[in-house]
Amino acid sequence: MLEAKHKNFVAPGFEIEVDGKKLPLDKFAIMNLQINIPVTVGLRSMVSEASQCQFTVAGMYDLKNHKFTESALETLKMGKKIVINGGYSTKSCLFVGYIQYVSTDFSSDGAYITVSGIDSSTLLNLGKQVSGFENQDANQVVKELVSLCTVNGFAKSGSNIGRFSNTKIHFNQFNRSNNEFLNFLARREGYTFAIIHGEVIIKDLLKTTAPIVELTYGESLMSFSKAIDLSHQIGGVKVTGKNDKMEPIEGEVTKCSIGKTGKNSALDLMPKIKDYKMDAMDPIAEDAASLKKIAQSIMNEYAVMLVSGRGMCIGLPELYPGRYIKLSGMDSKTNGTYFLTRVTHSFGSNGYVTYFEVKGAWTN
Q1: pTM of this prediction?
Q2: 3-state class (DSSP) for residue 163
Q3: Cβ atoms within 10 Å, residue 170
Q4: C-alpha 281 chain-centroid distance
């Protein structure tokens, strides 16, 4: 099916658009294009990792006149919007962001320009904030934070931003960056914050377990390795807080709620884990139901650290993190459905290949 969709994977290629204009690839000799798209899940990460791209430009230096030709450095100027599409007969969006880094390198092999782009979630990392929120709507606060990374068309926001149940926030940002604060709010809801292909996503990505594609070892799947690790597993989470009358409240869970994509959880593998529980506090929630939801989010983030893996497949533009992937053609303990946490598209001397990393809360 994949072979038919992509015309037997013949003639892979890409397009790079800078500031609304396509680079003429007959003049800009692009080497070693890498696009890295991560989704941060597990162990309550404070800051989401940004998508990045990097490529090298050769053949643009005029040795006689001692300068780069075709206004190469002006075209690849820092701060400009960059869009990359790739694939086969039909190109799909693989990256949207802005040029963050440009270097020039001179050696006996020639002169090269290296360009790195990054998604606009990094704009939320600029500086620390001490903003106070008193009786403010959580959804409006999130909307204002998201607007900081959609400037200049570097990203867009739409239907992939979930609703926040805490309608009012009484909180101080406590010297967090806007990225840290947005992740803090998102993870209390069980949401993941990421920018994928230029779209802001804040939702429960672990919930939808239907795989986006199936890869078979010996065919589209070139390699895969899997590991199971109990070192981060816990038997439950209890979160405490205070209601509006300053009375103590709590919420507790003892099982992960991630959609089942295997046979065994950490508790099935080692029942003694149930005795090792985690305590946490939340400064915003004012009822037990909200605290239980937060406890569930923490429990799930530990549970998804049980299984990890990485693989390589033929270049697939439709592969992106934040969804599940089905792997087959291996033994029964390895075949299964996994959550994609990182996808790297690589165009180089070996053609077009895609690397990926996965996590999971269930073994097979």
Answers
A1: 0.93
A2: coil
A3: 14
A4: 27
